Amino acid sequence: MLNTIKNKLDPRPNAISLLKDDHREVEALFSAYQEARDKRRQKSIVLKICEALEAHTKVEEKIFYPAIKQKKDLADMVNEAVVEHAGAKKLIRELKNGSPADELYDAKVTVLEEYIRHHVKEEESEMFPKVEATDLDLVELGERMSAAKERLLEAA
């Protein structure tokens, strides 16, 4: 309980706020894709979506999920999230290698968006509240995640 209060009072971003920021960024990119009419602009937006999701999933899988998986009631949620990531990664590969002129391109973007919306809803309504109730130092975890994401994006 004391750690939960400490995490909420610390002005530095914590793991949950960083992940939620990523979620909002990707949601905005999906909206921009839906509004774009030019095929070149659509491809550019999809590449940004893919880059953001790749960095996000790597940070979750390498840092966030292992840290929370040890906590009661979270292992099954983490396992489900990893499986959801696998489905999204397949679509990401296909979109990165595809073209907006491809017959199924828009459908793949739509399905990826649906996967992500479902995943985000589960994380934010079920997983994150449980994580916040643990004794994890979410600020320290967020600092590690932020540094890892920065390195990933610089290498991209």
Mean pLDDT: 92
Strand content: under 5%
Estimate the helix proportion, in percent.
over 70%
What general outline do the C-alpha atoms trace?
elongated
Largest sheet: none
What is the first-to-last residue Cα distance? 39 Å
Question: Helix and strand string, N-terminal first?
Answer: HHHHHH
Number of strands: 0
**Structural class category:** mainly alpha
The residue ranges in which pLDDT falls below 50 over 5 or more consecutive positions are none
Secondary structure elements and pairings:
Blueprint: H1 2-9, H2 15-35, H3 39-69, H4 75-97, H5 105-132, H6 138-155
Helix pairs in contact: 2-3, 2-5, 2-6, 3-4, 3-6, 4-5
Outline of this structure?
The chain has 156 residues and is mostly helical. It is built from 6 helices and no strands.
Verbal overview:
The protein is mostly helical and 156 residues long. The protein has one domain (13-155). The protein is built from six helices and no strands. It has helices spanning 2-9, 15-35, 39-69, 75-97, 105-132, 138-155. α3 packs antiparallel against α4 (75-97). It is elongated. It starts with a helix and ends with a helix. 26% of the residues are buried. The model has no long low-confidence stretch (mean pLDDT 92).
